[in-house]
Design a protein that fits this description.
- By secondary structure, the protein is mainly α.
- The protein is built from seven helices and two strands, in the order αβααβαααα.
- About 75% of the residues lie in helices and about 5% in strands.
């Protein structure tokens, strides 16, 4: 029983320290469920948000949730680009090959912009953050528009767009509540 209490106290303390390290002015700490419901207005995105944040501290600063979602998006980009490279290496026809090569470039843009947004969240400096999220969303969306139904990775890219949108929505929620925009 005493060991269980020690573990609970230690876990709670670590979660509080993690949350405090990513706190910006006027950014509340909420449950991830509340944060998802504020950031995601459709049931589909709400579900993606819950899945994205399931391993995050249950109560934390919204900046922590925005960073977790951005990290999840960049991991999804890496996984999808790896699969695109495999598809291109198999010698797919010209139009499909060109589409996947274009997508690889778009995903590089998305990754760079999402990394920049994560840096902004850590620094509580949101002068360019909205633009960075917007560019990441556009990059993934543009990639998806280049693919035809039935091609490999159409579903993966749609899922990546959902995670990117959730990250952008969580970021927008932080920015809207921050008094430290540092423009």
């Amino acid at each position: 029983m005493e060991r269980t209490m020690t573990i609970v106290v230690l876990t709670t303390t670590l979660a509080a320290l993690f949350a405090a390290s990513n706190a910006c002015d006027n950014i509340p700490s909420l449950t991830w469920n509340m944060t998802c419901s504020m950031a995601c207005k459709t049931p589909q995105l709400f579900d993606v948000c819950k899945e994205t944040l399931k391993d995050a501290p249950y109560i934390s600063a919204m900046t922590v949730y925005a960073s977790v979602a951005a990290k999840r998006a960049t991991k999804a980009y890496d996984d999808t680009v790896y699969k695109m490279a495999d598809i291109v290496a198999t010698g797919v026809p010209g139009e499909e090959r060109d589409a996947y090569l274009s997508c690889t470039n778009r995903y590089a843009t998305a990754r760079i912009q999402m990394e920049a947004a994560m840096t902004d969240m850590d620094a509580c400096n949101f002068a360019r953050t909205t633009q960075e999220y917007d560019e990441a969303v556009v990059a993934v969306k543009t990639c998806g528009e280049k693919l035809k139904a039935g091609w490999p990775l159409v579903a993966a890219i749609a899922a990546d767009l959902n995670v990117t949108t959730v990250a952008a929505n969580l970021g927008a929620l932080v920015i809207s509540r921050s008094s430290s925009k540092k423009l």
